[in-house]
Amino acid sequence: MRRIAVLASGRGSNLQALIDAIAAGRLAAEVVGVFSDRAGAGALERARAAGIAAVSLRPRDFDSRPAFDEALFSRIDGVQPDLIVCAGYMRLLSEHVVEARAGRMINIHPSLLPAFKGLHTHQQALDAGATEHGASVHFVTAELDGGPVIAQARVPVLPGDDAARLAERVLAREHPLLLATVGALVEGRVRLLAGRVADRGRPLAAPLQL
Ligand code: GAR
C-alpha cells in the first residue's frame, strides 16, 4: 500500500502532515495525487507546491452525485492508488464507489466515533457536555462516518473551551493519528478482514488508541 491518493475539500493540513512525513523519511509511501470537489481548496495548493498532481472537479458540472463520483474516481483510479485517504473531504460519497474500494479507503473524522458523526463535531461535543473528545480514522463504508474504526486519539474538553479551541486541540492530535494509521496500513500490519479491523491478522476488540 505505498501509493496514496488524497481527497480533500479544505485547507489540507492533514495532507501536509503526510507530505512532510514522507519527505522526512518517516513514512514509506508516496502521495500520487490530490483530488478535490473545490477548485479553491488549500489542499490543492499544497499538492502543487510539493509537485503532486492536483485535480478538482466541480459537482455542479454533473447531473447527479453518482455521476460526479464516477468521474472523480475514474481520475483517482488513473493514478493507481493502493490507499485512498479522505482528509477533510466534505462531500458524501455514493455507495458504489465506496463499496468497490472496501478496505482501501480511509477517512479521518474529528470525533471519537461512533459519537458525533456528521458536521460541527466540536460544537456537538460541547453541546452534549462531553468531557473527552478527539479524532478517529476509520475504513470508509456506505454509512456516513460509520465504517470500522481503526484508531483514535483523545483530548480532554477543558473549562472555557469553545468550538475553535477544541478544534485546535483535536487537530494537533489528528496529524500524528493519521500518520500512524497510514503507516500501519502501508506496512500491511492493519487491514480490513471480514468487515472488521485486523491487526497482524487478529480482529481488534477496540480501536487502537494513539
Ligand atoms: C479535519 O479536522 C478533519 O478531521 C475534518 O476536516 C478537517 C480538515 O482539516 N474532516 C471532517 O470533518 C470529515 N467529516 P485539514 O483540511 O486541515 O486537513
UniProtKB/TrEMBL annotation:
Main function: Catalyzes the transfer of a formyl group from 10-formyltetrahydrofolate to 5-phospho-ribosyl-glycinamide (GAR), producing 5-phospho-ribosyl-N-formylglycinamide (FGAR) and tetrahydrofolate.
Q: Tell me which EC number(s) this protein carries.
A: 2.1.2.2
Q: Which domain of life is it from?
A: Bacteria
Binding site residues for (6R)-10-formyltetrahydrofolate: R65, M90, R91, L92, L93, N107
Record-linked PANTHER family: PHOSPHORIBOSYLGLYCINAMIDE FORMYLTRANSFERASE
Q: What is this protein called?
A: Phosphoribosylglycinamide formyltransferase
Question: What reaction does this enzyme carry out catalytically?
Answer: N(1)-(5-phospho-beta-D-ribosyl)glycinamide + (6R)-10-formyltetrahydrofolate = N(2)-formyl-N(1)-(5-phospho-beta-D-ribosyl)glycinamide + (6S)-5,6,7,8-tetrahydrofolate + H(+)
Instruction: Please list the residues that bind N(1)-(5-phospho-beta-D-ribosyl)glycinamide.
Output: G12, S13, N14
* Functional pathway: Purine metabolism; IMP biosynthesis via de novo pathway; N(2)-formyl-N(1)-(5-phospho-D-ribosyl)glycinamide from N(1)-(5-phospho-D-ribosyl)glycinamide (10-formyl THF route): step 1/1
What are its GO cellular component terms? cytosol
Which principal EC class is assigned to this enzyme? transferase
Q: Where is the Formyl transferase N-terminal domain?
A: 3-181
Underlying gene: purN
The organism named in the record is Marilutibacter maris
Instruction: Kindly list the residues the record flags as site (Raises pKa of active site His).
Output: D145
Record's keyword annotation contains DNA-binding: no
Which family would the database say this protein is a member of? Belongs to the GART family.
Question: Which GO molecular function annotations are given, in alphabetical order?
Answer: phosphoribosylglycinamide formyltransferase activity
Organism taxonomic ancestry: Bacteria, Pseudomonadati, Pseudomonadota, Gammaproteobacteria, Lysobacterales
Q: Is the Transcription regulation keyword given for this protein?
A: no
Pfam families according to UniProt: Formyl_trans_N (PF00551)
- One Gene Ontology term from the biological process aspect of the record: 'de novo' IMP biosynthetic process
Catalytic residues as annotated in Swiss-Prot or TrEMBL? H109 (proton donor)
Arranged from A to Z, the UniProt key words for this protein are: Purine biosynthesis, Transferase
